[in-house]
């Protein structure tokens, strides 16, 4: 059977894989983007009811890829963050972690709903002639040879390229087939996500409440609306999900900032079992992993997708530099540059979120006092607060070119 040839094969056309396809095509590479789900399913605004807290660096990447212009008018800047500690029904702790105008570059982050971002990304992909967008096609096998790797689809069709990228999420078959094992843990928590409407404006403020069973995030959306990410122990979450809407809202209301007033539910509630799942390696023979395929983290800090977009921007830089030097993009030398660049950030973020979840998801009296003091200390110490804000905004460390401040006249140098 003949093989369709490309420069890069991306297995998984989610937000990470789709962004990578655009970034590589923009650098002149011919890319096949393969996803198991049909287009109609992924462009349905109800496909995923979540909303994403995008770091400043992620917004820069999406802007450089021509996606941000399609969503900006329907996004909500995060103008402040207020993190508090306390029991359900009890008032929030007086000692809080508060962020506001720490970044001279702009807001701390921006909220955008998946039902806005995903269709915009897929529309940008459809407009890019260098991307072969292969939807409704499940990857079932892959093999790495001396000059190319091949990927086999459920239909029996085979594709070949010097490099395969696994962007197929936290249960990555691409990683498993390459013999890359995973480590991590189940948190015993499930995140309930939904959108609420409320009586009073949110003022662009995101609230993070650390409750003993798990964190509750209230994230501002356009209008008098907020996205909820409520992490509870698995059994309690199942009971909350089984409640009728009115009873669910009655359980949620005492945990929300009183400033929002009366609340209502928009759309459906969804459940997301929470895990930490790290691939033991980010690369293999003629293979690189990006996004959740490399690292799935707890959503407590809203960093999972941001981390994946940092992989995308770094891999695009590494491959652009390899192309300029005439190197084989799937060679061990090129791939290890990518792994070295991303390895530390990945492990550091996974460790930080894991520590955070474990330190905050309990009501041990001594630890509660320490937590509150810690939050108040970060709030009080300006340079520390700014450093934390820059880290969360993805502006710390060695930034890939797609995440750097764009030149004033537009246009941008690769790598
Ligand atoms: C409750 C919750 C809230 C979150 N909030 C935030 C947030 O605010 N900010 C943030 O940065 N992150 C957040 N995250 C993390 C974020 O959801 C993930 O990091 C991100 O969605 C991962 O995207 P991805 O493209 O890597 O993987 P996925 O979204 O899992 O995409 C994988 C794709 O691969 C395809 N696929 C799988 N197997 C195959 C196959 N064999 N063949 C072909 N295609 C295949 C799938 O169809 C899918 O489209 C949150 C996570 C949770 C659980």
SSE diagram, text form:
Layout: E1 4-5, E2 8-11, H1 15-26, E3 31-35, H2 39-43, E4 51-55, H3 56-64, H4 68-71, E5 76-78, E6 80-85, E7 97-99, E8 109-113, H5 114-126, E9 131-135, E10 139-144, E11 149-153, E12 158-161, E13 163-166, H6 173-177, E14 182-198, E15 205-211, E16 214-221, E17 225-233, H7 234-242, H8 245-252, E18 263-279, E19 283-284, E20 287-289, E21 295-296, H9 304-324, H10 332-360, H11 365-380, H12 382-392
Parallel strand pairs: 1-12, 2-3, 2-13, 3-9, 6-15, 13-20
Antiparallel strand pairs: 4-8, 5-8, 6-7, 10-11, 11-12, 14-17, 14-18, 15-16, 16-17, 18-21, 19-20
The structure holds flavin-adenine dinucleotide.
The site of flavin-adenine dinucleotide has 33 residues, from helix 1, strand 3, strand 4, strand 14 and helix 9.
Can you tell me about this structure?
The chain has 415 residues and is of the alpha/beta class. The protein has two domains: 4-184 and 276-400, FAD/NAD(P)-binding domain, CATH 3.50.50; 189-274, D-Amino Acid Oxidase, subunit A, domain 2 (D-Amino Acid Oxidase, Chain A, domain 2, 2-Layer Sandwich), CATH 3.30.9.10. Helices cover 34% and strands 29% of the residues. Helix 1 (15-26) runs parallel beside helix 9 (304-324) and helix 9 packs antiparallel against helix 10. 47% of the residues are buried. Bound molecules: flavin-adenine dinucleotide.
């Amino acid at each position: 059977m003949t093989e369709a040839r490309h420069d890069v094969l991306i297995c998984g056309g989610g937000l990470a894989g789709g962004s990578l396809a655009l970034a590589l095509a923009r650098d002149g590479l011919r890319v096949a983007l393969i996803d198991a789900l049909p287009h109609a399913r992924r462009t349905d605004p109800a496909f995923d009811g979540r909303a994403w807290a995008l770091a400043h660096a992620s917004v820069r990447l999406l802007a450089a890829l021509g996606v941000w212009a399609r969503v900006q008018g329907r996004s909500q800047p995060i103008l402040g963050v207020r993190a508090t500690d306390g029991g359900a029904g009890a008032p929030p702790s007086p000692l809080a972690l508060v962020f506001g105008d720490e970044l001279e570059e702009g807001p701390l982050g921006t909220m955008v709903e998946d039902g806005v971002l995903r269709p915009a990304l897929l529309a940008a992909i459809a407009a890019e002639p260098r991307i072969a967008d292969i939807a409704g096609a499940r990857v079932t096998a892959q093999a790495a040879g001396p000059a190319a790797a091949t990927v086999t689809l459920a239909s029996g069709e085979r594709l070949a390229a010097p490099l395969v990228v696994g962007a197929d999420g936290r249960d990555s078959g691409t990683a498993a087939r390459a013999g890359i094992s995973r480590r991590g843990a189940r948190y015993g928590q499930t995140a309930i996500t939904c959108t609420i409407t409320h009586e009073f404006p949110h003022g662009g403020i995101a609230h993070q409440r650390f409750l003993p069973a798990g964190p509750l995030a209230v994230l501002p959306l356009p209008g008098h609306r907020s996205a909820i990410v409520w992490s509870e122990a698995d059994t309690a979450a199942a009971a909350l999900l089984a409640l009728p809407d009115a009873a669910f809202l009655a359980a949620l209301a005492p945990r929300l900032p009183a400033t929002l007033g009366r609340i209502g539910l928009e759309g459906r509630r969804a459940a997301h079992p929470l895990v930490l799942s790290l691939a033991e390696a980010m690369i293999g023979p003629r293979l690189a992993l990006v996004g959740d395929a490399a690292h799935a983290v707890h959503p407590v800090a809203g960093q999972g997708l941001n981390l994946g977009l940092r992989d995308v921007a770094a891999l695009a830089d590494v491959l652009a530099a390899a192309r300029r030097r005439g190197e084989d993009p799937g060679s061990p030398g090129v791939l290890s540059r990518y792994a070295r660049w991303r390895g530390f950030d990945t492990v550091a973020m996974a460790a930080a979120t894991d520590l955070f979840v474990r330190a905050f998801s309990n009501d041990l009296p001594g630890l509660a006092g320490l937590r509150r003091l810690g939050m108040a200390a970060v709030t009080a110490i300006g340079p520390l607060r700014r450093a934390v804000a820059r880290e969360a905004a993805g502006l710390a460390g060695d930034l890939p070119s797609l995440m750097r401040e764009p030149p004033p006249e537009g246009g941008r140098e690769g790598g």
